[in-house]
Amino acid sequence: MTPDRPVVCCDLDGVVWRGDEPIPGAGAAISELRQAGFRVVFVSNNSSQPVKEVAAKLRATGAPASTEDVITSAVSAAALLASALEPGAPVLACAGRGVVEALEEAGLRPVTRPPATAVVVGLHRDFDFDELDRASAAVRSGARFVATNLDATYPVSGGMIPGSGAIAAAVATAAGRAPEVAGKPERPMADLIRRRFGSKGVVIGDRPSTDGALAVALDWQFALVLSGVTQREARPGGEAIPDPAPPFVTADLAALVPQLVEGTTAG
Q1: Crossing angle for the helix pair 187-197 and 73-82, nearest 10 degrees?
Q2: Domains of the chain (ranges, CATH numbers)
Q3: Residues 11, 69, 211, 252: which is the catalytic one?
Q4: Is 211 noted as a catalytic residue in this protein?
Q5: What is the spatial distance between Cα 220 and Cα 196, in angstroms, rounded to a whole number?
Q6: Per-residue pLDDT tens for 93-131?
C-alpha cells in the first residue's frame, strides 16, 4: 500500500459479483488497484455467508483476500450486541450461517427460538411463517431487535430477489417495533470500518442509499458503479443515479479503476 493512497472500501454484491456469478473484469480491477498502491478491502451488507467463505469466494474471482480484509453486516451486528450483552447471552438468529458464526465468534450464543436476550434478522432463503412467529414473539417479549441491514433487494444473476430489509420489515410489522440497524450506512458499521481500516478512504458501491450514505457518514468519496442495483434508468426495486452525481460514476469496477487511480490523490 502506498502511504498517500486512501483505502478502497469495496462493496461485493452488484460490484464484484451478482449472486454466484462474477462480474467480468472485477477481479482484475481489484488487482490493478492494489498494484497502483491502494489497500482494497471489502464491506458487504450481505450477512448470509461466513467471512471465511466470502474471502474464499473473492480468491476464486482472482482477488486475493484474507478474513481481515472483509467486514459483513453480520460482523457489525455481532460486535454491536457483544458490546452490550453478557458473554454467552442467547441471541435468536433469524438469519443465515454468517450471523450464526459472527455471534459465536463474538462470544454470544445463537439460538433458534425464545427465550432470547436479542434477535438478529438477516438475509436467508429459508425464512418462513414459523420463524417470523418466533422472532416477532421474542421482540414483543422485550428482546433487543437488530437488523443486519435494511436493503430491500439483493442483486443476483438475471435480476433481484428480496433482501434482508424485506425480512426485517415482516418481523417489525409483527412485533410492532422497528429494529436497530448494524450494517451500511449506519454508525455501527462506520465505526467498525474506522477502527479496522483507518480514517481515509473511498467507498465503491452500487447503492447510493447504503454505499453512498456510508461514504457521507465516513466523510469519504463515493464511487458508484452501475453493475448492480443502480442503473441509468432506474428499474422497479432499483435505485437512480443521485442528483448531483457522486465524483465517480462508471459502468462497472473495471471501468472505474483508471478514473480512481487518476482522480484520487492525497488529502
Answers
A1: 100
A2: 1-39+213-224+249-267 (no CATH), 74-181 (3.40.50.1000)
A3: 11
A4: no
A5: 15
A6: 999 999 999 999 999 999 999 999 999 999 999 999 999
Active-site position among 4, 13, 206, 219: 13
pLDDT bracket for residue 266 (50, 70, 90): very low
Band the pLDDT of 235: cuts 50, 70, 90. Answer: confident
Local structure of 116: helix, strand or coil: coil
Lookup: cell for 76: 457489525
For residues 248 and 19, give the distance between their C-alpha atoms in angstroms, rounded to a whole number. 24
Give the list of residues 6+ apart from residue 113 with CB closer than 8 angstroms, or none. Answer: 92, 134
Q: Are strands 201-205 and 159-162 parallel, antiparallel or unpaired?
A: unpaired
Cβ-proximal residues to 252 (8 Å cutoff; 6+ apart), any chain: 23, 24, 25, 26, 29, 225, 226, 227
Residue 128 designated active-site: no
Q: Among 171-180, 182-191, 227-236, where is mean pLDDT lowest?
A: 227-236
What value does the mean pLDDT take over residues 239-246? Answer: 94
